[in-house]
Specification:
The protein has 246 residues and is an alpha+beta fold. 18% of the residues lie in helices and 48% in strands. An eight-stranded mixed beta sheet has the order 2-3-4-1-5-8-7-6, covered by helices on one side. The protein has an eight-stranded mixed beta sheet with strand order 10-11-12-9-13-16-15-14.
Length: 246
């Protein structure tokens, strides 16, 4: 099973506010799915589900954030690996209906993520399209250590790249394709955390719309050769999100 980041969950104390903001920004819709402990609200784009909204659970950070789901072939084995490598398993593996098994963990430097083992081993990977997630990036205080940790947990093959103005950038590859990235947190206020990216037709137009809806731009639209034009915002509840025009 190819390791990849396959699901993104928005965790906040105000689900409705988040749904309104992202619905206006990206045209996302919602789909409620029955679960043993109540309905779960999924994010849909272009008719496909790409993530979900979760009310902040007890013990989770009170600030709004995106929880990235890392697909692995064996959640329990990956959870043990997390602990062996100095990370923490915040919630032990548990079943999610008939969909699969997940656990919630943090890396040795506090970056939270979920481990996901789908019930169907041949579950297809998400396809990038405007309005859907296209990339996942860890801003790390210790990039080399983070690369080693996630490579060991999920079986990624890392690749090192020199990015002008950004320093060294690492991609996490699987099945010959880059699945995510890690870069050094250079600013003192930068958080050690994962930031998902949403693909758009125009970064500049999306940023202008985001500002009108109450978002704060923390990285202005910037061109990256051979990659595209990106920016990073904080939504009205304070969660970071990347915008990318390939």
């Amino acid at each position: 099973m190819t390791a990849a980041f396959v699901w993104f969950e928005y965790v906040s104390k105000d689900d409705k506010k988040a749904q309104g903001f992202f619905g206006e920004l990206f045209g996302w819709t919602t789909k409620d799915v029955p679960m043993p402990d109540g309905a779960y609200t999924m994010i849909a784009s272009g008719g496909k589900t790409i993530g979900g909204y979760m009310h902040t659970p007890p013990g989770a950070p009170s600030t709004s954030h995106w929880l990235t789901h890392l697909r692995v072939s064996d959640v329990r084995a990956a959870s043990e690996k997390v602990t062996q490598l100095g990370g923490k398993v915040l919630e032990a593996p548990f079943k999610v209906g008939d969909f699969g098994t997940m656990a919630i963990a943090s890396d040795p430097h506090g970056g939270a993520f979920a481990l996901w083992q789908p019930a169907k081993a041949d579950e297809p990977l998400p396809e990038a399209a405007d309005g859907s997630f296209c990339w996942n990036e860890l801003t790390s205080k210790v990039p080399a250590a983070s690369v080693a940790f996630y490579s060991a947990v999920a079986g990624f093959t890392p690749e090192k790249m020199d990015m002008p103005g950004m320093g060294t950038y690492f991609t996490l590859n699987a099945a010959g394709q880059p699945r995510g990235g890690i870069l050094e947190a250079r600013m003192p206020e930068a958080q050690h955390a994962w930031t998902p990216y949403v693909q758009v037709a125009s970064t500049d137009k999306t940023i202008e719309r985001a500002k009108k809806l109450g978002a704060t731009v923390i990285v202005l639209p910037t061109d990256v050769p051979t990659v595209g034009r990106f920016a990073i915002i904080l939504d009205p509840q304070g969660a970071a999100l990347g915008i990318l025009q390939p």
